[in-house]
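ok new one. same drill as before - structure tokens go in, u give me an amino acid for every spot. 505 of them this time. try not to just spam alanines like last time pls lmao
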């Protein structure tokens, strides 16, 4: 009877564990090591989870000798980690072809281990062996998935040869998508231009963008390129060879995976290696150095927000306007968009110049600049409350700008509510940057910092003690929104700064 109970619990442990951790693997883009990293996060932020896992593992191991002990051990492992839902509230499993292949690999490994345990009549043996199988399957399938996607890449390369567009590649720690949208807008008056959608910025995403969007007659293809480490952009440029390459900025995004700023610079700089022309933000010291280093090899166009008045393109903030200068001469002055950063427009203009646009052609396209979705988007609800949606992949610079936007919209008499789980993927700087963010929020009265979840709660609370603003904590964004939306009055502003899927604590 005990053996039957153990086997039933083992199957339950497998099913529940698979549903939990396959969802995490999918949300973390199937990156090897990320399932383990998220498991560690849940145990670190909620210490009782570490205790639950330890007790469960010890009891399951003890069950090899005394089977009855495996029952509470498997119950503990089935419920671990406490707080991570079996079915996601905001990040549900999407049964894609890739996930189905990963699931098949996981099940194959699990069935193999269970059969071995069955032969040995030791169900606890399976409980011990199954703890790391999903992570192993993610690692083992990574190379296979790369090979399987090869046919789509080959198809995309064929389409590129047939359509023969000029390729523009854009990378940077922040601002890639906004710069891409500005560039498409500027080019639309002179060229048939298409861009990779959303954040389709890796090998398979760009291949899909080419296959789906590159119609005959397309003159310009704008490719946003992302990276988690050196070598990735080199590979993308080999497959989708850019004529013009641009780097928006260097910052701390993905520092957790890259390790240090020097690695980020090296990884991003790969984009200019084989391009005919480079468009660079010389307000960043490393990019100014890069511009000097490659100036004898290719055409280099320098962009600035005013720190370098001698740059080829300067977009300077002037009260509520952006003053644009090209080659030392005034080009135009436009109303500053509610969201957006002037360097992104400067780089877009630089790209247009590299492709042969005249200053007159550019001037005519400076109205109606588009805004990127969920990047400091501003609207006013039916009650007159300002809503600033900056929920896409927050970073220190963008968060500071979004906070300034919220305060500007609320004015002197309005309150500002900042709903945030903080920023992630900042490596060793994560606690520091979140503490600084919280301090900036509470630096003014009539401000409420609403901390969502536990991921960065300690760091945000630390920063929240430094000013006169109010600090509140909520289990999730839904609860915070429900309460603060009622509290907000006409003229107030609610800033949603970042949003983490619910596989984060």
């Amino acid at each position: 009877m005990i053996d039957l109970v153990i086997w039933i619990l083992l199957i339950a442990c497998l099913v529940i564990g698979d549903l939990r951790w396959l969802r995490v693997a999918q949300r973390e883009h199937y990156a090897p090591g990320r399932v383990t990293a998220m498991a560690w996060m849940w145990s670190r932020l909620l210490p009782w989870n570490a205790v639950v896992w330890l007790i469960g593992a010890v009891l399951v191991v003890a069950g090899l000798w005394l089977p009855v002990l495996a029952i509470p051990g498997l119950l503990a492992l089935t419920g671990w980690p406490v707080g991570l839902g079996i079915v996601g509230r905001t990040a549900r499993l999407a049964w894609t072809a890739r996930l189905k292949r990963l699931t098949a690999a996981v099940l194959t490994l699990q069935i193999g281990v269970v059969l071995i345990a069955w032969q040995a009549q030791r169900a606890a043996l399976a409980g011990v062996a199954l703890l790391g199988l999903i992570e192993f399957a993610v690692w083992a399938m990574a190379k296979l998935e790369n090979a399987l996607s090869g046919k789509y890449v080959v198809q995309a390369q064929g389409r590129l040869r047939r359509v023969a567009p000029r390729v523009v590649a854009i990378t940077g720690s922040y601002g890639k998508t906004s710069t891409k949208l500005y560039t498409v807008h500027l080019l639309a008056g002179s060229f048939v231009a298409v861009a990779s959608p959303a954040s389709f910025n890796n090998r398979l995403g760009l291949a899909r963008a080419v296959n789906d969007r590159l119609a005959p007659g397309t003159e310009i293809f704008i490719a946003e390129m992302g990276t988690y480490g050196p070598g990735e952009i080199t590979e993308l440029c080999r497959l989708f060879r850019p004529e013009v390459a641009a780097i928006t900025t260097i910052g701390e995004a993905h520092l957790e995976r890259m390790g240090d700023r020097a690695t980020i610079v090296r990884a991003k700089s790969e984009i200019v290696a084989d391009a005919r022309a480079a468009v660079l933000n010389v307000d960043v010291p490393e990019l100014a150095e890069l511009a000097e280093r490659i100036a004898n090899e290719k055409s280099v166009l320098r962009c600035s927000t005013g720190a370098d008045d001698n740059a080829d393109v300067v977009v300077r903030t002037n009260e509520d306007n952006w003053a644009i200068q090209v080659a030392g001469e005034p080009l135009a002055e436009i109303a500053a968009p509610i969201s957006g950063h002037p360097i992104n427009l400067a780089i877009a203009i630089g790209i247009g110049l590299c492709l042969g646009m005249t200053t007159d052609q550019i001037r005519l396209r400076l109205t109606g600049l588009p805004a990127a979705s969920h990047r400091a988007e501003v609207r006013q609800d039916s009650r007159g409350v300002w809503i600033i949606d900056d929920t896409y992949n927050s970073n220190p610079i963008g968060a500071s700008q979004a906070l300034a936007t919220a305060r500007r919209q609320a004015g002197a008499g309005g309150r500002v509510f900042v709903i945030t789980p903080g920023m992630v993927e900042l490596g060793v700087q994560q606690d520091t940057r979140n503490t600084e963010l919280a301090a900036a929020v509470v630096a003014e009265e009539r401000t409420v910092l609403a901390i969502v979840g536990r991921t960065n709660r300690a760091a945000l609370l630390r920063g929240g003690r430094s000013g006169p603003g109010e600090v509140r904590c909520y289990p999730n964004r839904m609860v915070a929104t429900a309460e603060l939306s009622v509290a907000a009055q006409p003229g107030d502003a609610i800033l949603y700064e970042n949003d983490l899927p619910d596989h984060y604590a």
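The mean pLDDT is 89. and btw The first strand starts at residue 166 and ends at 171.
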